[in-house]
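Support request, please re-run this one:
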Amino acid sequence: MSRRAGAGIRQALAGVGAALLWQAAAAQQATYAVRTVTPEAALRAARAALAACAKNGHQVAVAVTDRSGIPLVMLRDRHAGPHTPGTATGKAYTALSFKLDTLSFARTTQAGESSSGIRHLPGVVPIGGGRTMESAGSIVGAIGVSGAPGGEADDACAQAGISEIRDDLEF
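Re-run finished. Output below.
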């Protein structure tokens, strides 16, 4: 084999190697790992939120979703209104979708505000009681509470639910 042919083969092999490395890098960029709240942690948070509201005499429903907005847990106190499960789920969905607690969302989307129209999107519930759950700087789920007298009371119960699992989320 001539030097010229050997150099050509080496060059071709180097090109194949570079192409394989590029394909491996492209495959790594085509996927990613995500963290999400577990059903067990979601249940603990929901129970804590329900208990916090019950302690204050409020009959509520609590929903916890994963990071995609899919419900993992929904608990309803026996005397909570029939609208509360859907409203709690909607509050969690809203907090997750807009990455903002729903008390703040309600204020920033009220009539006359430039973003008021987004409160009318399907599934959006612009009432306090929805909060995101974060772990290591990423949203891993959301919690929504409905049924207490006012969004502030619902929000306090949602915060109690998150506080129950905060150490597990922050590890």
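The radius of gyration is 24 Å. The domain at 39-170 is CATH 3.30.450.150 (Beta-Lactamase).
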